[in-house]
Amino acid sequence: MSYSTRTFLLGPDDTLYRLASAKLSRMLDDPNRHRLPRFAGQRLRMAEAIVIVAVRDRAPYAVVRLVYERLAFDAEGRLDRAAFIRQNAARAELAMSPVIPRSEAKETVVIDAGSRFVAGGGSWQSTPEQEREILRAALDESKCERVNLNGVVEPVSHRESEAAGARIV
């Protein structure tokens, strides 16, 4: 077995789009050249599904983790890279804080909650229905449109019941 990451965007109307991982990487590396005009001026919800893929037939087997984030696009469809990096750095800082505490003056009574606010602004909570649809799409059990490397949205086919053995862990 191996792991793969599948990235999904939820439009304002809850339409689910699968975003190629290479497209997201290119958007982060060079937002000026790799735009999504369809989402210009919007702040979208993103879900990353970490999927176990069975080696024997490369079929998705299970989703082991879902991560919810937000992506902001400017008026020309460029990803707000700075906000994305800031939110992920804040999320990492929060995850590390129990392990590597900050050195603070003992008499300080002010709590620095900046990272918590920044990280919170970059995340969202799915409804049970949204999560179910994301999981089904991650396991190739349902159709969703795909945003390809050129930023074009195209329909995606799905495996019918051959993924019926897939499970969520």
Major sheet, described briefly? Answer: 7 strands, mixed
Compute the separation of the termini in Å: 15 Å
User: Largest beta sheet: what is the strand line-up?
Assistant: 6-5-2-1-3-4-7
Question: Quick check: average pLDDT?
Answer: 78
Structural class, judged by helices and strands? Answer: alpha/beta
Question: How much is the radius of gyration in Å?
Answer: 18 Å
Q: DSSP helix count?
A: 4
Shape: globular
Percent range of helical residues: 25-40%
How many strands?
A: 7
Which blocks of ≥5 consecutive residues have pLDDT under 50? 158-169
Bin the strand percentage: 25-35%
Q: What is the ordering of alpha helices and beta strands?
A: EEHEEHHHEEE
How many discrete structural domains? 1
Give the topology:
Blueprint: E1 2-10, E2 16-19, H1 21-29, E3 43-53, E4 60-72, H2 81-96, H3 114-121, H4 128-138, E5 145-147, E6 153-154, E7 167-168
Parallel strand pairs: 2-5, 4-7
Antiparallel strand pairs: 1-2, 1-3, 3-4, 5-6
Helix pairs in contact: 2-3
Tell me about this structure.
The protein is of the alpha/beta class and 169 residues long. It has one domain. 26% of the residues lie in helices and 26% in strands. Strands 6-5-2-1-3-4-7 form a seven-stranded mixed sheet, sandwiched between helices. Helix 2 (81-96) crosses helix 3 (114-121). The longest helix has 16 residues, at 81-96. The chain starts with a strand and ends with a strand. 22% of the residues are buried.
Short description:
By secondary structure, the protein is of the alpha/beta class.
